[in-house]
Design a protein that fits this description.
globular; 329 residues; disordered N terminus; alpha/beta; Spore Coat Polysaccharide Biosynthesis Protein SpsA, Chain A; 12 helices; 11 strands; eleven-stranded mixed sheet; single chain
């Protein structure tokens, strides 16, 4: 049944379980595959909430047919386009599960994602989230590589201090496409901040992680499809991205996130954004406290990966990706 988001009332299940939130905008062609993978998990979600952001394709018709096949599927249609972050936050507000998982409409989860993640989260109630490995697939180049392979080889819990230590060694990664959050921890972190645009998932995940610690599954749990139409590529200019990175640094310097700023600084995780973040840090004197050797090393690695993926022949690009992301002893 299709209902406007403003009128959606979802009855909570007796088992708190996991709520899946899928923001959708004009991805009707991908929905049958992605939603089937979510619904057919060995541990099924309590509910799958698709929030359609005023799509202009056949998404609502596709979702109407899928809702008849999957009784746990609920569809909420925004009356106007709100943007991906506000759409995700709307889904977060509607979710009744103790845990929440956000899935892009054009991505696909692997079998066992919820089973393995929830088992660890319930064994470690102090953890704010659980993450694993993700297979990235670049449509433009045909390259495929794994992200998160430098994380520990055993499943378990990582304290904030252990996360910092991994970050300093260039091994820490929270993989958004397979991250299962404790809802209360994500809400306390502010959810997905619209002002951070393409980087709101990074910020929210590491705020939760450095406040509560995280669980890690050393297996591939999802596929991430990087295409020319991906949201990340909607920035009009490099300057626009740097403005958002500058805003992220300002937030970390504010009282609201002062508790996680030292961890992000010490871990060097901000270097994930490569040279643009390095330039943003150096552009303002008040940001210079984030300029560390760990950040510089990570930014250099990220810059080399991007150059290799975009400019090298495929065989050399594959080699550079292995160098950047393969496991270390």
């Amino acid at each position: 049944m299709l209902v406007p988001a403003s009128d959606a009332i979802l009855t909570p299940m007796s088992d708190p379980g996991i709520s899946v939130i899928v923001p959708n905008y004009n991805h009707g062609q991908f929905l049958p595959r992605s939603l089937s993978a979510l619904a057919n998990q060995s541990v099924p979600p309590t509910e799958i909430i698709v929030v359609d952001d005023a799509s202009t394709d056949n998404s609502l018709a596709v979702l109407g047919a899928l809702a008849e096949q999957h009784p746990r599927l609920r569809v909420c249609a925004n009356e106007r386009n709100l943007g991906v972050q506000r759409t995700m936050n709307r889904g977060l507000e509607l979710a009744h599960g103790e845990y929440v998982f956000f899935s892009a409409a054009d991505d696909e989860v692997r079998p066992g994602l919820f089973d393995q993640s929830l088992r660890l989260l319930r064994a470690h109630p102090e953890a704010g989230l659980c993450s694993g490995l993700v297979e990235w697939r670049c449509a433009a180049t045909g390259l495929v590589w794994l992200m998160g392979t430098r994380m520990p080889r055993r499943a378990g819990y990582l304290s904030p201090d252990e996360m910092i230590a991994l970050g300093r060694r260039g091994r820490l990664m929270i993989s958004g496409p397979c991250a299962v959050f404790r809802k209360s921890a994500l809400v306390a972190a502010g959810g997905w901040l619209p002002e951070l645009r393409w980087f709101c998932d990074f910020f929210g995940a590491y705020v939760v992680g450095f406040r509560h610690g995280m669980c890690h599954v050393p297996h591939v749990l999802a596929n991430f499809n990087l295409s020319p139409t991906s949201y990340y590529h909607t920035a009009r200019s490099r300057g626009e991205r740097r403005e958002v990175l500058d805003r992220m640094l300002q937030l970390l310097e504010s009282p609201a996130y002062a508790d996680v700023a030292p961890a992000l600084r010490a871990s060097g995780l901000l270097g994930t954004f490569g040279w643009p973040m390095l330039r943003a840090v150096m552009a303002r004197r008040r940001h210079w406290g984030f300029l560390t050797l760990a950040l510089t090393r990570r930014a250099a690695r990220r810059g080399a990966e991007v150059i290799g993926r975009r400019c090298f022949p495929k065989w050399l690009a594959r080699w550079s990706l292995r160098v950047c992301y393969n496991r270390t002893p």
